[in-house]
Amino acid sequence: MFTVIKRMEISASHKLTLSYPSKCENLHGHNWVITVYCQAEELDENGMVVDFTHIKKAVKERLDHKNLNDILPFNPTAENIARWICGQIRNCVKVEVRESEGNTVIYEKD
After folding, report:
1. Catalytic positions
2. Domains contained in the chain, CATH given
3. Which class for 34: exposed (0-12), middle (13-18), buried (19 or more C-beta within 10 A)?
4. For a disulfide at 38, which of 42, 84, 91, 94, Cβ 3.0-4.6 Å?
5. pTM flag (> 0.85)
6. Element (DSSP H or E) covering residue 106
């Protein structure tokens, strides 16, 4: 089994729609740290699980310095963002999204 791990830092803003009062309902930003894990038993025709550049394009180039509410079709919680990223990348099996030093979400495919 081969595992590729790509860690990226992005700056992005969001506001959450919640069923309870919260300061997170106001537009605010984070310096997010996103770690993507991809796995494959066999390498592709290029000898890769996935190209690191393809991961970067799927995440950093689409999300960095953006208002996530403007570009994502869901409530941009860290949990939803992690699941969405995992679905964007070939052979992705796990995504960690850290929105601050003490707050990290991990999404793993079944």
Report:
1. 24, 65, 99
2. 2-108 (3.30.479.10)
3. buried
4. 91
5. yes
6. strand 103-108
Compute CA distances 108 → 18, 44, 83, whole Å.
24, 22, 8
Q: What is the rounded distance in angstroms from the CA atom of residue 48 to the CA atom of residue 42? A: 8
Cα 12 from chain centroid (whole Å): 12
Structure tokens at 98: 């850290």
Which structure tokens are listed for 66?
């953006």
Cβ of 63: how many Cβ atoms within 10 Å? 21
The residue written with tokens 């309870």 in the block is: 20
Token couple for 33? 């740290």
Q: Which two tokens stand for residue 86?
A: 């995992």
pLDDT in tens, 24-56: 999 999 999 999 999 999 999 999 999 999 999
